[in-house]
Amino acid sequence: MSRTLFEKVWDAHVVRAAEGEPALLYIDLHLIHEVTSPQAFEGLRAAGRSVRRPDLTIGTIDHNVPTTDRSLPIVDSIAEKQMALLRSNCREFGISLFDIDSDEQGIVHVIGPELGFTQPGMTIVCGDSHTSTHGAFGALAFGIGTSEVEHVLATQCLLQNKPRTMLIDVRGELPAGVTAKDLALGIIGQIGTDGATGYVIEYAGEAVRNLSMEGRMTLCNMSTEAGARAGMIAPDATTFAYLKGRRFSPAAALWDEAVEYWQTLPSDQDAKFDRVIEIDASDD
Fold first, then answer.
1. Residue of 82 and 71 predicted with greater confidence
2. 62, 75, 164, 187: which one has the fewest Cβ atoms less than 10 Å from its Cβ?
3. Interior CA angle at 241 toward 238 and 243, to 5°?
4. What average pLDDT does the segment 117-137 reach?
């Protein structure tokens, strides 16, 4: 049976599915930050629970980082408290943290790819609506709320209703000076800010293939602005070149095995989507 990229990743992560109920989905990578995690950790503590897979949970301080000298005291008391809580919670529950003074600290959706945590075929969640950014690598990635953050911390699983599939096929080449952000805004202008509600978008076509990984991340990041649950781009040679040699990417023989699997992820040629939108990249 032919399947889309989304369906291949979804099917590989379903722990339990019953008719009329949300599916229980296994989560490969849980990214946390200082704003949406404090209540989740407090819920764990109140229930006497531990973090199920601290090795699959990565913390970073990114929402409250000052643009001034980081060595100075944090003036905003709420921001300072949120950062202090993330530090203490990560220590208590054994979670790796990229703190404000770490050379590898950064925006949560940037350090995942930069460090090689983000990889094709993964399920990735974070308490941030723009988690769809990671879909540029062929991962199924989406934002979750604080109660869901607690659920993933406790179980490494998440209840999810299966979204519908949408293919956005961008044909031709983008004109000179037109960026991935322009393309994303053009798509949203065509389908509307709620045009992808209930869908996972797969972006395809020559214009998408010609984007850098940074451009693909921008495009997938903007999926949520169209109401999509997630945005995805099938992994290819551009993806592999970006990931090779990253700190937490597979290495040596494991790299070859990973690439062999990643190459099976693109949508089958005759896969069926619930909705297909074709866009001419040269249109004004």
1. 82
2. 75
3. 110
4. 97
